[in-house]
Design goal:
Length: 431
């Protein structure tokens, strides 16, 4: 048996505000950041687990402190029992009543739990010699449902429901795995659409996205309607009348304002409106969905837990579900979210970009295709083309698709030199 000997945490920040990468109506000057954790063991194989929580600058130190608060749950414990029962490990850490009080099961503490859970999955996948998506996709339906905490879900998704979904997908797993390795998973790009970009940059990047094989782009909206109309028109002139262009308001609007604003943009045929209002306002999203139909509503990157996803689906508030690899409590809770989406027949198009989110969330979509839904129809992963060079195994995008990673692990490990260069010292570093 080997033991966990340390949780090493680092406050890593990239000065993306200097070029307005990531800028939108609610976040005009983000500095993309990672509250980074390494779960270190004394195992002879030398395998450590890497994970992070994505933030946009100030407050990253608070997120690091939350991860540090979990050291007492892990340091000194034998690693093998934790890895052998990841469902039990998840429930054990989530169940700390005093830390749970800070949520419960939401916010900074919940994301911190996700980081350590994801780091343990990184170790488990590396020890198995498999990429995370493949490790998960080769587990039995019974093993997979054991990972899920069904508490608060059973009026929408029971253990038996989940088993039925997973067993139905079992027969074609091997064939879909081969197909995924050969052709990848569809992606779309937000890179042209940051709100701080000039019209010229928007047009240039939209052309490049189409040339690169992406079949959808996304524009940030919500600060000024006249600007949005002008920018959307320019995007349409570049992309043509039928090319899918989604829009994203990043929670900017009141419910009635969202309906009015999207209606004003309807002539440009948005593929969906993303995060039109508060991510916690389930009934508000449902009202928007009714008010702008047939334009679809998408949300989920800030959904704080599986219960919010359950309610969004029950209320028919979304037509596109967007999970995030690090917003909820890690792989286990995201498996619950994928199963909920499958139960309700809603496609999942994950949120990505940020710091390492593309590298992380691709594993969940690929697992979903192979072992849960069995389809990529109407599904795609967001792609943003920055900061990939800082990861040991960066995303591999070809022809607008994510090629399936084959390296062992979760894909969340950053290069040691990048960690050193961008560790926060109270000033922009590494530039």
């Amino acid at each position: 048996m080997s033991r966990i000997v340390a949780l090493d945490t680092t406050d890593i920040r990239f000065p993306t505000s200097l070029s307005l990468d990531g800028s939108d109506a609610m976040n005009p000057d983000p500095d993309y950041s990672a509250a980074y954790v390494i779960v270190r063991t004394d195992a002879e194989d030398g395998v450590d687990g890497h994970a992070f929580v994505f933030t946009i600058g100030r407050g990253n130190d608070v997120q690091v402190a939350a991860i540090d608060a979990l050291a007492g749950h892990l340091v000194g414990r034998e690693i093998e029992p934790l890895l052998d029962d990841m469902g039990g490990t998840f429930r054990d850490i989530i169940g700390d009543s005093q830390l749970r009080w800070l949520g419960p099961e939401k916010g900074v503490m919940h994301m911190a739990i996700g980081a350590v859970i994801n780091a343990l999955w990184d170790i488990k996948a590396k020890r198995a010699g498999l990429p995370l998506w493949q490790l998960l996709a080769r587990m039995t339906p019974e093993e997979l449902v054991d990972l899920v905490d069904f508490r608060y879900l059973t009026n929408a998704l029971t253990r038996d429901d989940a088993l039925e979904i997973l067993r139905a997908a079992e027969p074609g797993r091997a064939e879909r795995e081969r197909e995924l390795l050969a052709t990848g998973y569809p992606g779309y790009t937000t890179s042209p659409g940051w709100l701080g970009y000039s019209d010229e940059k928007l047009e240039r990047l939209a052309r490049e996205a189409m040339a690169d094989g992406f079949t959808q782009i996304k524009l940030k909206v919500g600060a000024d309607l006249d600007d949005d109309i002008r920018r959307f028109r320019k995007a349409r002139e570049v992309c043509g009348p039928d090319f899918p262009i989604a829009i994203d308001a990043n929670q900017r609007w009141e419910v009635s304002e969202a309906i009015e604003w999207v209606t004003a943009l309807a002539e440009f045929h948005p593929a969906w409106i993303e995060e039109p209002t508060s991510p916690d306002d389930v009934l508000g999203h449902a009202e928007i969905a009714r008010g702008i139909a047939p334009i679809r509503v998408a949300t989920g990157e800030h959904a704080q837990n599986r219960v919010i996803f359950k309610q969004l689906l029950q209320a028919e508030a979304i037509s596109v579900m967007q999970i995030d690899a690090v917003r909820v409590a890690g792989v286990n809770e995201n498996i619950a979210n994928l199963l909920l989406a499958a139960k309700f027949g809603v496609p999942v198009c994950p949120h990505a970009g940020g710091v390492g989110l593309c590298e992380a969330v691709q594993h969940l979509s690929m697992f979903d295709f192979v072992a849960v839904t069995g389809t990529r129809e109407g599904r795609m992963i967001e792609f943003v083309d920055h900061l990939h060079e800082h990861f040991v195994i960066p995303t591999d995008i070809r022809g607008g698709s994510y090629m399936a990673p084959t390296a062992a692990g979760s894909g969340m490990e950053m290069k040691a030199e990048s960690i050193a260069a961008y560790t926060w010292t109270g000033r922009h570093v590494g530039v």
